[in-house]
Each structure stands twice: as C-alpha cells, then as structure tokens.
Write a sequence for this structure.
C-alpha cells in the first residue's frame, strides 16, 4: 500500500495546470491529515462542520478549509470565522444565514452553488431554473458578505463513462452560460466536480477543482 504522501504527490503531478486539489479528509485523524500537509497540501475538505472546526483548531493556520457537505443552517456559525469555501450551497435561505454569519465575523465568504446533475433521487442540489431565480432575486443582490465564485456538482455513482460525461458536460455548459454575467457578489470562476472514482472524466469536461478523498487517504471506515 502507498503512503498518503505518495498518493498525494502522484495525483497532484497528474493534474493539469489550473485544476485545484481539495484533499477530502473527512473521518481521518489529524496525524494523517498532517502527513498530507507535510507533503505540501494546503486545501482540505470536510463534510461535517463540527469535525472541521475541531481540526481547524488543532492544525496549522495556513490551511484552507472547504466545507463540501450538506449544511444545516444552525451550524453555519461554527465555521463562519475561518471557512474559505463552502461548496454545497443549495438554497437562498442557507445563503441568507451564511451572509448573516459572515457579516458578524466581518468577512466575505466564498460559496459555490450546488447543482443537481445526478439521476439519483438522493443527491442534493438546485436545478438550472432555481439557480437563475436565486441569482436574479433582489434578496441575493443585496448580500454584501457572500461571494458566489462557482458551481459544484456530484455525478451519479456509476462506472458508465458516457453517463458521467453527460452529467459533467451539462454542468460545464451551464457554468459557461452563467459565467458571462458578473455582478458585485457573483463571479463564476470555479467548477468543483470530480471525486476519487471520476475526477479524470470531470477534468476532461472542464472541472477546475477536484475533491479527492479515498485515493489519497485510503478507504474510510464509514462513508457519508
Ligand atoms: C466524500 C466526498 C468526496 C470524496 O470522495 P472520495 O470518493 O473518497 O474521493 C468528494 N465530494 C464530496 C461532496 C464528498 O462528500
């Protein structure tokens, strides 16, 4: 079995320029995350706010912490002081809370809107129509403490390459369409798509940020 740093270096060296790597460290203990840190990794992704906050306290302060999981509004306050990117924003109500907590911390928090691209019923996310409605709403345009900097999507759990390509391709198409319109708090530059099993296909379809966990840290004991 390869070590964490070997995995990380191999994956990084194969990423095209302009594609950022989020090392997904959910469920992994601090010493293992530190191994990736020592190999040069600075962006880590977590899917539970309290777990991320605890790791933030313990780890070096030049790490960028990304929240990649589904978010409960009442927990936004635990990460508002330090989170550097929130990937899975899927409602105006959630954005309202992020804006409020960012203001309290005197910050502007970067967010990605999550699109539903998978055929599976269980995946969270907005439809294209809902994204347009959100971005055009007066409420959104009044938010001073959030910046929507891109889109995020999770493909169906399948090895069908054609289906993965169609799902990632549809998200890239929407991303290109929406990036034309820039406003004070919306300027789409980041397209977060691709995980351990499908990130090479996501990159071929225009991903600029991949979220890779098990290929770096090994299998998780439990998976959410
Ligand atoms: C767990 C998780 C990942 C990483 O999954 P791997 O298959 O371990 O690479 C990526 N994105 C999200 C949203 C996740 O929850």
């Amino acid at each position: 079995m390869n070590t964490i740093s070997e995995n990380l270096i191999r994956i990084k060296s194969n990423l095209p320029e302009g594609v950022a790597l989020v090392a997904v460290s959910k469920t992994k203990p601090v010493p293992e995350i530190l191994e990736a840190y020592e190999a040069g990794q600075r962006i880590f992704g977590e899917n539970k706010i309290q777990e991320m906050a605890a790791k933030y306290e313990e780890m070096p302060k030049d790490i960028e912490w990304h929240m990649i999981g589904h978010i409960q509004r009442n927990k936004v306050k635990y990460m508002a002081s330090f989170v550097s990117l929130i990937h899975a924003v899927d409602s105006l109500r959630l954005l309202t809370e992020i804006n409020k907590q960012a203001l309290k911390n005197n910050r502007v928090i970067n967010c990605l809107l999550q699109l539903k691209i998978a055929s599976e019923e269980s995946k969270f996310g907005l439809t294209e129509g809902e994204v347009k409605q959100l971005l055009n709403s007066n409420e959104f345009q009044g938010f001073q403490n959030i910046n929507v900097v891109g889109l995020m999507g999770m493909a169906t759990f399948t090895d069908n390459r054609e289906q993965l390509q169609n799902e990632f391709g549809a998200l890239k198409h929407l991303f290109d369409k929406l990036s034309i319109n820039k406003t004070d708090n919306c300027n789409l530059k980041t397209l977060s798509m691709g995980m351990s099993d499908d990130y090479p296909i996501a990159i071929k379809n225009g991903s600029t940020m991949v979220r890779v966990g098990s290929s770096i840290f090994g299998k998780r004991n439990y998976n959410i």
Notes: The first helix runs from residue 4 to 13.
